[in-house]
Amino acid sequence: MQDLSAAIMAAHAAIRPHVPFSPLERSGALSAALDCDVRLKCDHLLPIGAFKVRGATNKISVLGEAARKTGVVTASTGNHGMAAAWAGARAGVPVTVYVPATAVRGKLDAIERLGARLVIVDAPPIEAERQARRYGAEHGIPYISPYNDFHIIAGQGTIGVEIAEQAGADVLDAVFVCVGGGGLVSGLGTAIKHLSPRTRVVGVWPENSQCMLRALEAGRIVDVEEQPTLSDATAGAVEEGSITFPICQQVIDDRVTVSETEIAKAMRAVAETDHWMVEGAAGVALAGLMQRKDEWRGKKVAVVLCGRNISVEKFVEAVG
């Protein structure tokens, strides 16, 4: 495989100026409540409201002129599809997005508003991925995996570069990040290991969706039964042969699982302390820190707020 660290640094330049730096902001209220120095990495403030815009912008940039002729096809539970549609529109690349029928309606509407063609699959997310990949192969259209793609991972890794640069000499003790298919943590973790090796990478999963965690425990990708979760952005199985699996084995230092109640509590905490309404996947990362706060007392930690794409109704129902 190519040098991922070098590819991340190349992506760090390539995605500008389309993708701005997101802030790394200290939360005074959360720091006081958790008795540690909490920095919030605010990727929910990026275009389309999620970190996924990093990887999609990088991938479409490397495809270049060929993609403008053929278009691209991808699969998503929402945020990646929105990101691909957003990046494609700016590059003049037609985008087709396969989504499971269980995807959040608001995210599907957003994908269509951004100009992509939507194909709804009445099956789990992994089947939407398979059908999208088959469609691409049959029609000679590049398939963009939401996580199992070198350039997608490199793009997501730019968040780790930003965190290291923004922290500067004030080296962080840990970064808490949610894990789904592993694209975010693979890129972020690779960048952190390269630029801030003292910083531990803490992967956090919803108890209801632990596909990559179970793979790491088994030493291979395995079938895992999933339950509905507030963290819909991390839901879905990990496809066989995913390049994220060996990277996750290398870069995740600590593993945490959190309940749906803990996720909702974390989402509410961000709203109360920092006045941001974030989606479940962002709540997962903070919930991991809240659960393990005793281990990080007096330490400097960052929490990745990866997205904000949740309806008001669902948010209110979740947090009460």
Automatic annotation (TrEMBL):
CDD domains per the UniProt record, alphabetical: Thr-dehyd (cd01562)
GO process terms (BP): isoleucine biosynthetic process; L-serine catabolic process; L-threonine catabolic process
Cofactor(s) listed in the protein's UniProt record: pyridoxal 5'-phosphate
Highest rank taxon of the organism: Bacteria
Pfam families: PALP (PF00291)
Record-linked SUPFAM superfamilies: Tryptophan synthase beta subunit-like PLP-dependent enzymes (SSF53686)
GO molecular function, one term: threonine deaminase activity
Record-stated family: Belongs to the serine/threonine dehydratase family.
All residue ranges annotated as the Tryptophan synthase beta chain-like PALP domain in the record: 16-307
Organism: Bordetella genomosp. 8
InterPro entries, sorted: Ser/Thr_Dehydratase, TrpB-like_PALP, TrpB-like_PALP_sf
Annotated protein name in UniProt: Serine/threonine dehydratase
